[in-house]
Structure formats: structure tokens, C-alpha cells
């Protein structure tokens, strides 16, 4: 296994708890956006894990943002987490996506009574003190995403020493940079249990296979992670239950958090594309025009369409983060915001032509990144089918009107 060079994170004493409101916090987030943006192109080219970005976020206390205050975190609400994710994603979206997964895990961790209390506290304090990252690894080569059903091929065998975990996970967002994996697997018991098994990155038998080479979001390092007879204590079966029982891995509140934070990443990518377009239109002055492109009505109209799409996104996401959108609409939030973000970046590319697709400019990178919004669960077909089924189930049947 080859490892990317990862600078050590600062000591706990160097991490500064964030002030979550006011001009100081706003200025902090603006500075973080600018600093992350300076290295975004290099991360996109190399596909390396953005370790320096997470060291920066740890110094600002932002890796413990959704850890409860009682355990040393900020105990932030969804609206605050959205602000941070937006600021990070406008600078470097791969970092933001890894951070989303980390935030989602910690936001619901302390409410999950299936976890032993000492493990919940250990994982939380690791995030506070060391900036340790956490994510769930669920997708498999044969099964795909468990969101559409099925049992995992990854197996935990119960032995006298503890669990022996073997299997393979793909699309493992963060891979090299994660300290803790929650691996979705099934036990080998006569009545198998299914759920999350907690694995530390330094456990023998773990191998990261560098196969993530995608069009966009390249710095997420979403490589394959293979587990071969990885030994785990028995209490590291942290969130398992009978295979035949329903497995609601996320409640309604968690689904809304996921929809808001995931799509905030891609909405922020579209915002960055919009900002680049504004600067381009203001600075580009063709010789035959003798004035900036911004003076032409057709570019003003195009920018107006982009800003209207982003206004819709901002309104929907802010309302959802404030608790004004029911969790039942989480899938629709994801679909609408993602579609608007993609459309906004496409409009920017159409407006400028060749410069928008040149690798010398960031717009083509923003386009590649925003397209990745489509792959996240739930996909459009699942969203629309569920909405349609709900509408048909709730609507009373009335006789169709007849013509005279």
C-alpha cells in the first residue's frame, strides 16, 4: 500500500474553538475559502488527499463542529454546518465533501444508543483533539449502494479473539485521510446481523487500492478499501441488528441534514463558477467592442438566469436548514438544488464558449465537479418515484368528469 505524504495535524492546544456567529466568524470563513481556493487546481490535477486543508480546518476548530459541546465540540446546528460547508466548498469542494460525511456521522453519533458509550466518546474526542476524520463505508463492487437493498458481501466472522472482518468497499470518500471507518457488513452467525463495524485505520489487514480516477471531485480520494481478516473487539459491532429486520440507518432529521449539506457542496461550486463568470465578463474587452462583455444585454440576461437559479437554491437550502422544510421533502431538496447547480454552471459555459472549457480557467473544473452531484443517493428516479407514490397514496379517488 502506498501512502500519500500527510503532514501531521497540530496538537490539541493549537486547535481553536470556533466562534459560530458574528463578523469574526464570517471573516474566518472568507479567509478559509480564499486559502483553499489557492490550492484547488493542484488537488484536482494530482488527486491527492487534501491533508493540508484538513490541518487548516482543525486549527480553526472546524473538524469538531458537529461534536457535542459536552465532549469538546461546537455542537453546531444544521444552519451553521451549512455555512461552513458552503465556505469550504467554494474554495475546494473535495475537502467539503469529505467534511460533509464527517459532520453527518458526528451529528447523529451521540444519539445512537447501539454504540457503546466509551466508543462514542473516543471517536468524538479524537475529532476534537486530533482532527480525526470519520466516515461510513457502505458501497461494494458487486452490490453497489445498499440504498436499493441487498446484503453486503463484507463479512465479520466471530472468533475467540474478536471479529475478523473481510471484504471490499468502493467509493470510500476520504480513504487515506480517515482515522475511523464504520464498515457496513454482515456477521457469520446462524442468524446474521447487519450493520456498522468500527475499524481504526491502523488495524492490520487494511489496504487502500488507488482506483479513484474520476471526472470530478478528484481530491476526495474515494478509493477502494480492502479488509482482510481485520481483527476487531467484539464491542466494535457498533450499529448492527438482525438481517431480516428493517435497517433505517438514518432518521428523518438525518436525511434532511444529508440533503442540505451534500447539495450545499454543489451549490457552492456553482457559486464559484458564477463568480468567475462575473470577473470574466467585467475584464474581457474584445477589440471590436471597445467595452467589457458585461456591457452587453445578452450576457446580463445570462447572468440573471444563473443568479435566479442560485437564488432558488439559497432560499430552499436556508429554509430547510432552518427547519422550515419537512424531512419528507429531503429527496426533492437534493434533486432540485443539484439540477439548478448543474444548469447554472452550464449556462456559464455557454456564455463564454471556449474559455469556459479551457483547463487554464477554473470553470471547466467547476463543471466537472458539479456533475458529480447526480451520483449521490437518492438518484432522480428514486426521488420522483417516491414522490409520485406518496401523491397517489394521499389523494382521494374521485370519478373522472364526463363530457356532455
TrEMBL record:
Domain Acyl-CoA dehydrogenase/oxidase N-terminal: 32-102
Keyword set includes Oxidoreductase: yes
Domain Acyl-CoA dehydrogenase/oxidase C-terminal stretches: 264-374
Keywords: FAD, Flavoprotein, Oxidoreductase
Pfam families: Acyl-CoA_dh_1 (PF00441), Acyl-CoA_dh_M (PF02770), Acyl-CoA_dh_N (PF02771)
Cofactor(s) named in the record: FAD
Domain Acyl-CoA oxidase/dehydrogenase middle: 140-230
Origin: domain of life: Bacteria
Protein family according to the UniProt entry: Belongs to the acyl-CoA dehydrogenase family.
PANTHER family named in the record: ISOBUTYRYL-COA DEHYDROGENASE (PTHR43831), ISOBUTYRYL-COA DEHYDROGENASE, MITOCHONDRIAL (PTHR43831:SF1)
Protein known as: Acyl-CoA/acyl-ACP dehydrogenase
Organism: Pseudomonas typographi
Amino acid at each position: 500500500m502506498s501512502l500519500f505524504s500527510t503532514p501531521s495535524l497540530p496538537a490539541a492546544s493549537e486547535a481553536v474553538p470556533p466562534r459560530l456567529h458574528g463578523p469574526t466568524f464570517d471573516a474566518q470563513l472568507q479567509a478559509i475559502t480564499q486559502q483553499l481556493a489557492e490550492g484547488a487546481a493542484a488537488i484536482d490535477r494530482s488527486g491527492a488527499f487534501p491533508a493540508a486543508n484538513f490541518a487548516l480546518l482543525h486549527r480553526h476548530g472546524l473538524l469538531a463542529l458537529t461534536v457535542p459541546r459536552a465532549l469538546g465540540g461546537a455542537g453546531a446546528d444544521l444552519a451553521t454546518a451549512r455555512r461552513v460547508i458552503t465556505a469550504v466548498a467554494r474554495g475546494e469542494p473535495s475537502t467539503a465533501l469529505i467534511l460533509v460525511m464527517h459532520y453527518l456521522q458526528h451529528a447523529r453519533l451521540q444519539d445512537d444508543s447501539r454504540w457503546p458509550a466509551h466508543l462514542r466518546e473516543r471517536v468524538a474526542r479524537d475529532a476534537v483533539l486530533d482532527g480525526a476524520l470519520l466516515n461510513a463505508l457502505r458501497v461494494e463492487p458487486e452490490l453497489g449502494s445498499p440504498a436499493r437493498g441487498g446484503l453486503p458481501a463484507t463479512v465479520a466472522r466471530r472468533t475467540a479473539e474478536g471479529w475478523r472482518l473481510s471484504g471490499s468497499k468502493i467509493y470510500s470518500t476520504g480513504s487515506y485521510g480517515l482515522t475511523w471507518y464504520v464498515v457496513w457488513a454482515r456477521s457469520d452467525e446462524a442468524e446474521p446481523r447487519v450493520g456498522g463495524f468500527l475499524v481504526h485505520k491502523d488495524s492490520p489487514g487494511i489496504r487502500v487500492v488507488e482506483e479513484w480516477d474520476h471526472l470530478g471531485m478528484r481530491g476526495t480520494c474515494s478509493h477502494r478499501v480492502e479488509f482482510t481478516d481485520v481483527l476487531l473487539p467484539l464491542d466494535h459491532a457498533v450499529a448492527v441488528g438482525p438481517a431480516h429486520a428493517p435497517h433505517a440507518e438514518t432518521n428523518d432529521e438525518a436525511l434532511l441534514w444529508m440533503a442540505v449539506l451534500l447539495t450545499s457542496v454543489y451549490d457552492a461550486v456553482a457559486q464559484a463558477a458564477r463568480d468567475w463568470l462575473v470577473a470574466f465578463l467585467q475584464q474581457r474587452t474584445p477589440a471590436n467592442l471597445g467595452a467589457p462583455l458585461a456591457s452587453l444585454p445578452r450576457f446580463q440576461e445570462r447572468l440573471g438566469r444563473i443568479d435566479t437559479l442560485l437564488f432558488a437554491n439559497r432560499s430552499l437550502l436556508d429554509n430547510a436548514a432552518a427547519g422550515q422544510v419537512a424531512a419528507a421533502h429531503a429527496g426533492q431538496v437534493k434533486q432540485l438544488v443539484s439540477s439548478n447547480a448543474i444548469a447554472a454552471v452550464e449556462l456559464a459555459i455557454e456564455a463564454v464558449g471556449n474559455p469556459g472549457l479551457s483547463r487554464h480557467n477554473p470553470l471547466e473544473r467547476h463543471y466537472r465537479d458539479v456533475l458529480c452531484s447526480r451520483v449521490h443517493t437518492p438518484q432522480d428516479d428514486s426521488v420522483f418515484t417516491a414522490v409520485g407514490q406518496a401523491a397517489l397514496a394521499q389523494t382521494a379517488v374521485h370519478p373522472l368528469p364526463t363530457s356532455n
